[in-house]
């Protein structure tokens, strides 16, 4: 298939007067890694559930592999691997049995599932845990098992809702590595996240979502280029002085952003900006020059941080 | 990670993505549409396997206890006083009723707290409904697994009845389907009700005390319903236990039940079952697609 694997037009979901998803349009190409970046409550999970046909939409059109998921739920979901935000593994079953029983929901025969389960255990680096109880696994292991489970039907599209929320940094990197391999093997990934580093790691292209609407769309680099400067200088003068000092920083960079604990100065030349600050006789407690990230894009677009 | 391991993992990934031995995705969806109920029942049965010995012990121990207490203990007393009840000795009279009562009591456990585990405590229902299986199939699959459990439990009870010589009719094996039908007549509507509960399920204790126990005590289990005062007989009439018990007595020792009443009992049990299933499908679909 050369057309998009997912196509949404004017997609809406409302609960009473509240619009959780308020008319969004996007397309996902086959093999692409597509992200929905936004804070909690932006409508990301709602969108994911509509794609899987596990939540009816209130308006707009939606096609997944040319089918309407609200009409052809089982047919659409046979192509999907769904990794929910909250692990829902069967704690009464052992690790391997979780994979096998899940595969049965797709009508897969045991003769296929038993070797497949071994393959998936290897992929999730859980071979040693095959007969362990799910309750005894660490958070990262459970997450990898949930992802392995989502692969049992050989999905063309993997829907990952906040794949690494709640994991420690090392577990996150292991997981990203696994997901990257899937992408290399041609699986389309759709990822929701409120972590900018995750979006930068995993996504070829993303939409920034806030309050059910799309604020911007593009590759991480493109978004940073369009909505931010190359570098950012972070200076701290102490939380009570930041607001006073900011007036004296006018013109140092292209623009300033005052956060409760620090001031961000957006500029193309971070070192130059730091020199200018000290030439004006200002001496921040700490200072740091870094590259712009998606966090800055989000701040610019919404005036708020991704993580409150 | 060392270099060779990395390569091995890459090969695996390619197999993962292009595994050619699986049925097509369209075939997966078609199978799930046809057999989804059974696929979910398999999961529930698999979970029960962990409790195989307790379940079997309960299935054997409970009828044994009842038969000894009611037959040997209470039965001896009743036989001394009244002689025969309904034309048979007390144990024969009470045994089919105990079978029906115990499965109905067991179903009140199976279709309450495990339903809460599915929706809330362990969210077990949310995994299958993200696959090719639909919420209504999850509802019916859960019920199917419970029916299979009660087939086994009723069968064991029937064997115990045979061992005590308390099932004289050649048709006595029919107490098994009667027991299961009584269980679904109460269990399916209860499952639908349990699925509507959003909080911690405190209501279930109330159901145990004020619905299940009266059904057990006032539904003609230990004495014919006709000896109760008229103003209490309605409890029997609305209780699946009484309808099931009458059918089980007919099967077990050929109790005097008219053809019309057989039809009434069957219709009542089937109607409750079907109504409960329809409601459960509806409630599950609403809640899991919310």
From TrEMBL, chain A:
<dbReference type="GO" id="GO:0046677">
    <property type="term" value="P:response to antibiotic"/>
</dbReference>
<keyword id="KW-0046">Antibiotic resistance</keyword>
<comment type="similarity">
    <text>Belongs to the ABC transporter superfamily.</text>
</comment>
<dbReference type="InterPro" id="IPR003439">
    <property type="entry name" value="ABC_transporter-like_ATP-bd"/>
</dbReference>
<dbReference type="GO" id="GO:0016887">
    <property type="term" value="F:ATP hydrolysis activity"/>
</dbReference>
<keyword id="KW-0067">ATP-binding</keyword>
<dbReference type="InterPro" id="IPR017871">
    <property type="entry name" value="ABC_transporter-like_CS"/>
</dbReference>
<keyword id="KW-1278">Translocase</keyword>
<dbReference type="InterPro" id="IPR050763">
    <property type="entry name" value="ABC_transporter_ATP-binding"/>
</dbReference>
<dbReference type="InterPro" id="IPR027417">
    <property type="entry name" value="P-loop_NTPase"/>
</dbReference>
<keyword id="KW-0813">Transport</keyword>
<keyword id="KW-0547">Nucleotide-binding</keyword>
<keyword id="KW-1003">Cell membrane</keyword>
<feature type="domain" description="ABC transporter">
    <location>
        <begin position="6"/>
        <end position="236"/>
    </location>
</feature>
<dbReference type="Pfam" id="PF00005">
    <property type="entry name" value="ABC_tran"/>
</dbReference>
<dbReference type="GO" id="GO:0005524">
    <property type="term" value="F:ATP binding"/>
</dbReference>
<protein>
    <submittedName>
        <fullName>ABC transporter</fullName>
    </submittedName>
</protein>
<dbReference type="InterPro" id="IPR003593">
    <property type="entry name" value="AAA+_ATPase"/>
</dbReference>
<dbReference type="GO" id="GO:0005886">
    <property type="term" value="C:plasma membrane"/>
</dbReference>
<keyword id="KW-0472">Membrane</keyword>
From TrEMBL, chain B:
<feature type="transmembrane region" description="Helical">
    <location>
        <begin position="173"/>
        <end position="194"/>
    </location>
</feature>
<dbReference type="GO" id="GO:0046677">
    <property type="term" value="P:response to antibiotic"/>
</dbReference>
<feature type="transmembrane region" description="Helical">
    <location>
        <begin position="206"/>
        <end position="227"/>
    </location>
</feature>
<dbReference type="Pfam" id="PF01061">
    <property type="entry name" value="ABC2_membrane"/>
</dbReference>
<dbReference type="GO" id="GO:0043190">
    <property type="term" value="C:ATP-binding cassette (ABC) transporter complex"/>
</dbReference>
<keyword id="KW-0813">Transport</keyword>
<keyword id="KW-0046">Antibiotic resistance</keyword>
<feature type="transmembrane region" description="Helical">
    <location>
        <begin position="146"/>
        <end position="167"/>
    </location>
</feature>
<keyword id="KW-0472">Membrane</keyword>
<protein>
    <recommendedName>
        <fullName>Transport permease protein</fullName>
    </recommendedName>
</protein>
<comment type="similarity">
    <text>Belongs to the ABC-2 integral membrane protein family.</text>
</comment>
<feature type="domain" description="ABC transmembrane type-2">
    <location>
        <begin position="54"/>
        <end position="287"/>
    </location>
</feature>
<keyword id="KW-1133">Transmembrane helix</keyword>
<keyword id="KW-0812">Transmembrane</keyword>
<dbReference type="InterPro" id="IPR051784">
    <property type="entry name" value="Nod_factor_ABC_transporter"/>
</dbReference>
<dbReference type="InterPro" id="IPR047817">
    <property type="entry name" value="ABC2_TM_bact-type"/>
</dbReference>
<feature type="transmembrane region" description="Helical">
    <location>
        <begin position="90"/>
        <end position="113"/>
    </location>
</feature>
<feature type="transmembrane region" description="Helical">
    <location>
        <begin position="55"/>
        <end position="78"/>
    </location>
</feature>
<keyword id="KW-1003">Cell membrane</keyword>
<feature type="transmembrane region" description="Helical">
    <location>
        <begin position="262"/>
        <end position="284"/>
    </location>
</feature>
<dbReference type="InterPro" id="IPR000412">
    <property type="entry name" value="ABC_2_transport"/>
</dbReference>
<dbReference type="InterPro" id="IPR013525">
    <property type="entry name" value="ABC2_TM"/>
</dbReference>
